[in-house]
Amino acid sequence: MVEITRAGGDVPVATPRWRLVARRFLRHRLATASLVVFLLLVLLAFVGGALWHYSYDVYTPDNSHPPSLEHPFGTDATGYDLLAQVLRGTQRSVEIALFVAAVSGVFGSVWGAVAGLHGGKVDTLMMRVADLVLIFPAIAVAAVLANNVGASSQGWLLIGLVLAALTWPYVARLVRGLVLSLREREFIAAARTFGAGSWRIIFRHVLPNALGTIIVAVTIIVAVAILAETALSFIGFGVRPPDTSLGLLISQNQTAVATRPWLFYFPGLFIVLIALSVNFIGDGLRDAFDNTRSRSRR
Predict the structure, then answer these.
(1) At what angle are helices 138-146 and 155-182 packed, to 10 degrees?
(2) For residue 165, what is the enclosing H or E element?
(3) What residues contact residue 236 under an 8 Å CB cut-off, 6+ apart?
(4) Cα dihedral angle (217, 218, 219, 225), rounded to 10 degrees?
(5) Which of 56, 203, 221, 288 is the 20 to 30 Å CA partner of 251?
(6) Rounded to an integer, what distance in angstroms lies between the CA atom of residue 272 and that of residue 278?
(7) Dihedral sign computed on CA atoms, order 159, 165, 166, 171
(8) Spelled out in words, what is the top-level CATH class assigned to the domain 30-293?
């Protein structure tokens, strides 16, 4: 998809849409700064965690030490280096959030596109299923389903699947609403005239035109998944020791707020930074894909 601009005042030039979206996104200073913060946090967690000289699951002889040059985030009562644990927890929380966003984004997009394109009884049945999922109390259902999987070696993947199973209807409803308007457009009618099947229309014509809506929805789900995983781990139904996550660290150290506050506030700070930065990135992407809002600013 392209937009026509003019070079030198006279010659029309076709600008690819992705460049226009990137240009609009970079004009959103808060979103750009948030993207930098999020990427730095991810880089710190995955690269810094591998390079840091302490491991998240190895004791040190320094018990309950406050933040220092040797232990920038301090240590807990058993001697674990909190920086190593926070970096590991960030890794695990980000992995779960991205996995949830990917699975719910793909499944929800296809579900919504199929429902919207076919309409009628197919649409009614498929969206009633989505509505049925939406009425469940997400945290309660996730806690029950994740109760027996968090302690396994691949428990974080299963927790991600549980959260994705409860969040895909949000994407499906957004995509379905957009497809209801797209299916009446000329290019869909032309594709049908030339014998294109439903799946070809969905993957070649519908989903590419819904990409902006999908990206924004998936970005919001990343933030939702971070907070949901934190809540599950906090109440004991998420990631389990010997692994760790940001929510689990807060849960384990909630009683130390008054005596060793660094054990509580550093993991909490990372959760806040990740959630806020992802939300602001979502705002920037929404504005970047919104042609109407972009034109109104000119």
Answers:
(1) 140
(2) helix 155-182
(3) 251
(4) 110
(5) 221
(6) 10
(7) positive
(8) mainly alpha
Closest CA to 283 of 96, 104, 32: 32
Other beta carbons within 10 angstroms of residue 136's beta carbon come to 13
**d(C-alpha 226, C-alpha 98), whole Å:** 9
Look up residue 284 and give its amino acid. Answer: G
Q: Which residues pair with 13 in a beta bridge?
A: 5
Query: Which residues, including other chains, have CB under 8 Å from residue 256's CB and lie 6 or more apart?
Result: 76, 77, 263, 264
From 175, 207, 201, 177, select the one nearest 187 (Cα to Cα). 201
CA 183 to each of CA 126, 145, 177, 200: distance values in angstroms, whole numbers, following the listed order = 17, 37, 11, 13
- Amino acid 145: pLDDT: 67
Query: CA-CA distance, 56 to 85, in Å (whole number)?
Result: 5
Helix (H/G/I), strand (E/B), else coil: 154: coil
| Domain segments of the chain as ranges | 30-293
For residues 150 and 19, what is the distance between their CA atoms, to the nearest angstrom? 42
Q: pTM for the complete prediction?
A: 0.82
Nearest to 39 by CA among 237, 218, 278: 278
- 10-residue averages of pLDDT along the chain (298 residues): 48 64 88 94 91 87 87 88 92 92 94 89 92 81 65 72 89 91 80 78 84 88 88 79 86 83 90 92 84 50
Phi-psi region of 163 (alpha: psi -120 to 50; beta: other; left: phi over 0): alpha
- Ramachandran sector of residue 67 (left: φ over 0; alpha: ψ -120 to 50; beta: rest): beta
